[in-house]
Amino acid sequence: MGARGLPARGRRVLPGWAGSRTRWAPAAVSRGVGCRCTWCRAGDSAPLVAAWRGAARLAGKDAGGGGPARGGPGAVHQPGQGPGAAGPAALRPGGAALQLPGLHLRADRQRAGQPLRVLLRQKADWAMHKLECSAMCVFGQNWNPSETVRLTARILAKQKTHPERTQSEKLLAVKEFESHLDKLDNEKRELIQNDIAALHHFYSKHIEYPDNAALVVLFAQVNCNGFTIEDEELSHLGSAIFPDVALMNHSCCPNVIVTYKGTLAEVRAVQEIEPGDEIFTSYIDLLYPTEDRNDRLRDSYFFTCDCRECITKEKDKDKLEKRKLNEPPSAETVRDMIKYARNVIEEFRRAKHYKSPSELLEVCELSLDKMGSVFEDSNVYMLHMMYQAMGVCLYMQDWDGALRYGEKIIKPYSKHYPLYSLNVASMWLKLGRLYMGLENTTAGVKALKKAIAIMEVAHGKDHPYISEIKNEFKDH
């Protein structure tokens, strides 16, 4: 999907390129191509090395991870036509607004329950790979910088080797990213200092650093300008910086979606866009009610959204739907349950780092049972925990359990999310593959076709994901 922002700190990041899959990933891996270092020749018993796919396109492009920079007008659609201009012609849904180079990570056909097999194409990417490869050899099993640190290290290395603007900096350079440094609280500043310490620890022999003040600015820029790279099922793959795409402003009613093909970020219209209209993308997950969305925007990007959806709050009633009872719950009861829901969502996020899958599933089930006394199944807090439960079931290979949760999720997802949402497409895709695996071919084909209908607009009809899904029809 390419949502704005970097993954939460604290997640264990596996060795290699920033942004490899990190949660419960087995250690089996295909080794790199063309690298003779001890680490890359160590074989499948060595810790997991992350993927870099399509690295042959790296020359002249930015390294690292990032995303839209808050504060610039949306001039990205038609360079030279002024802030927010959509260009001389209207765009219809599915029309490609622009294609810009960057970086993309992808596992090699990863499926639930299978070892993560990845390919590291190092010959074309050697200048960047050697930055981490030598350090990985030194630290071995203790190589564990966060994704943000690895990303920043690559940005520094790229800026040293290519001081001139790159192909993806035609309108905006990385150094021009908004940092919001003056808005950082003490906690965020402390986290940045921790990242700087980790950068020095893991890369001290391999990078020339600017002074601490400059590093603080760079980490602040990275933290609020990160694109998250995801696969067709919205599993996290990595992060990338696309400076020119960073010019787009946010709206909770976006008229474009950013997707990825190889090393390109592609921006496609998902609404009719007239000449002169500003281009808006979404920085966040749009499932949640207005207050939650703006809490996230203020915390990560330091602004409050004033789009039509945030002003009217017209979807909030449905998103916070209460169970129809003989005696409706009091306003206080509803407020308390919303507070509980937000707390349990945060608790679950932290618990992913130390609880077992069965324990996580129990957290989901208990919270759903409690919230279900007040909320309808279509309430977004119920949907959030159902989605988490579905993910745990998939990991545990409980296909029937995953399917039950998915079938409850898909209808309200289609109602709450905007048209052509990748979240809806990915849920149809998950359901289709589950149906196929459980030999319900008719339901599987129907679900996969619904996913394709959305993805052909969001990704384009020629995207490899579309071909892969269509091949799944042929396999059955």
Automatic annotation (TrEMBL):
Comp. bias (Gly residues): 62-74
Catalyses which reaction(s): L-lysyl(4)-[histone H3] + 3 S-adenosyl-L-methionine = N(6),N(6),N(6)-trimethyl-L-lysyl(4)-[histone H3] + 3 S-adenosyl-L-homocysteine + 3 H(+)
Main location (coarse class): cytoplasm
CDD domains: SET_SMYD2 (cd19202)
SUPFAM superfamilies (alphabetical): SET domain, TPR-like
GO CC annotations on file: cytosol; nucleus
Annotated GO biological process: methylation; negative regulation of cell population proliferation; negative regulation of transcription by RNA polymerase II; regulation of DNA damage response, signal transduction by p53 class mediator
Region spans: Disordered: 60-93
Domain named SET: residues: 15-284
UniProt KW Cytoplasm keyword: yes
Tree of life domain: Eukaryota
EC number, as in UniProt: 2.1.1.354
Subcellular location: Cytoplasm
The name this protein goes by in its record: [histone H3]-lysine(4) N-trimethyltransferase
InterPro entries: H3K4_H4K5_MeTrfase, SET_dom, SET_dom_sf, SMYD2_SET, TPR-like_helical_dom_sf
Composition bias type Low complexity, residue spans: 75-93
Organism listed in the record: Chrysemys picta bellii (Western painted turtle)
Lineage per the UniProt record: Eukaryota, Metazoa, Chordata, Craniata, Vertebrata
GO molecular function: histone H3K36 methyltransferase activity; histone H3K4 trimethyltransferase activity; p53 binding; RNA polymerase II complex binding
